[in-house]
Design brief:
Elements lengths: L1 E4 L5 H20 L1 H11 L2 H8 L4 E7 L4 E9 L5 E9 L8 H12 L5 E7 L3 H9 L3 E6 L10 E7 L2
Parallel strand pairs: 4-5
Antiparallel strand pairs: 1-2, 2-3, 3-4, 5-7, 6-7
Helix pairs in contact: 1-2
Length: 162
């Protein structure tokens, strides 16, 4: 798979990837109804479309020419030199193939002036936590509201970049 910038034509496939990945990851933790509610809001076509045109951001997909295997979205914060990795998801059938690492590497080089890459990860998502730790992220704190509107607890991780 190769990593490229997402476009309008990718949005339906990105949404499908996110919905399937979220259900595979979180149904057993939060329940199907809550995951459906979250994906209906956070991963709607309208929500994804706003990311395409957000200033100081990067919306990426991993594409093999037939399907999308992963996606990432990161944006500058109000704090100088800090980028927030809002999303990095790899389809369950494509995990452990280097796609997540390739997306992460492209996010890092997309913001040449940044010094820190920050993310929030649900405390119960041990697979993601292991992935981020193996890619140089360290825990720096906690939040009671992952994503700023979920009410879900999360850990905050950071990595020095640049």
């Amino acid at each position: 798979m190769f990593v490229r910038t997402a476009s309008e034509r990718d949005l339906a496939a990105v949404r499908a990837l996110l919905v399937e990945t979220w259900h595979a990851t979180y149904d057993a933790i939060y329940g199907v109804e809550r995951v459906t509610e979250i994906t209906g809001d956070w991963h709607s076509i309208a929500s994804l479309r706003t990311r395409l045109t957000r200033p100081n951001s990067e919306f990426l997909v991993a594409d093999d020419g037939k399907r999308l295997g992963g996606m990432a979205f990161a944006a500058a914060t109000t704090e100088p030199k800090i980028i927030l990795l809002n999303q990095l998801y790899v389809h369950p059938s494509c995990q452990r193939q280097g796609i997540g690492r390739a997306l992460l590497e492209e996010v890092e080089v997309s913001f040449p002036e940044a010094l820190t890459l920050r993310l929030e990860v649900e405390e119960v998502n041990t697979v993601a936590i292991a992935f981020y730790r193996s890619n140089g992220f360290l825990p720096t704190g906690k939040t009671a509201d992952c994503g700023g509107r979920s009410g879900l607890p999360a850990l905050i991780f950071e990595k020095t970049i640049g």
